[in-house]
């Protein structure tokens, strides 16, 4: 998966940049966000949800989840023994971020 489809040797870094987020009413720690995902040198706007585990002075730690369409990025849709991955997949990310 890493080499054949994501080509991690050639593109070793993917970047999730959160532009803005807002806490969901009545759900402490849960928020929605918008931002951009850069994968294989292609950037696309995304929206998702996240859960903030801790907020220190300048550092935020949590988990994010969002959907992408594989064909939005230059990725061949994975297939093995006749089973093909759906074009739309949910991505889960554990993150440490620095407030700017």
Question: What do these coordinates show?
Answer:
- This protein has 100 residues and is mostly beta strands.
- It contains no helices and 7 strands.
- A 5-stranded antiparallel β-sheet has the order 1-2-3-4-7, with no helix packed on it. Strands 5-6 form a two-stranded antiparallel ribbon.
- A hairpin with a 3-residue loop joins strand 3 (42-55) and strand 4 (59-69).
- The radius of gyration is 15 Å and the shape is elongated.
- The mean pLDDT is 83.
Gross morphology: elongated
Q: How many runs of DSSP E, i.e. beta strands?
A: 7
Strand order of the largest sheet: 1-2-3-4-7
Oligomer: single chain
Cα(first) to Cα(last) distance is: 34 Å
Order of helices and strands: EEEEEEE
* Count of helical regions: 0
Strand content: over 45%
Helical percent range?
Answer: under 10%
Instruction: Round the mean pLDDT to the nearest integer and report it.
Output: 83
Query: What structural category do the secondary elements indicate?
Result: mainly beta
The description of the largest β-sheet is: 5 strands, antiparallel
Low-confidence stretches: none
Question: What would you report as the Rg, rounded to the nearest angstrom?
Answer: 15 Å
């Amino acid at each position: 998966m890493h080499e054949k489809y994501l080509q991690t040797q050639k593109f070793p870094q993917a970047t999730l940049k959160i532009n803005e987020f807002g806490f969901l009413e009545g759900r402490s720690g849960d928020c929605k966000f918008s931002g951009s995902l850069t994968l294989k040198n292609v950037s696309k706007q995304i929206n998702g949800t996240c859960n903030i585990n801790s907020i220190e002075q300048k550092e935020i730690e949590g988990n994010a989840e969002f959907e992408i369409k594989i064909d939005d990025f230059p990725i061949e849709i994975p297939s093995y023994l006749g089973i093909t991955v759906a074009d739309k997949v949910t991505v889960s990310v554990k993150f440490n971020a620095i407030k700017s």
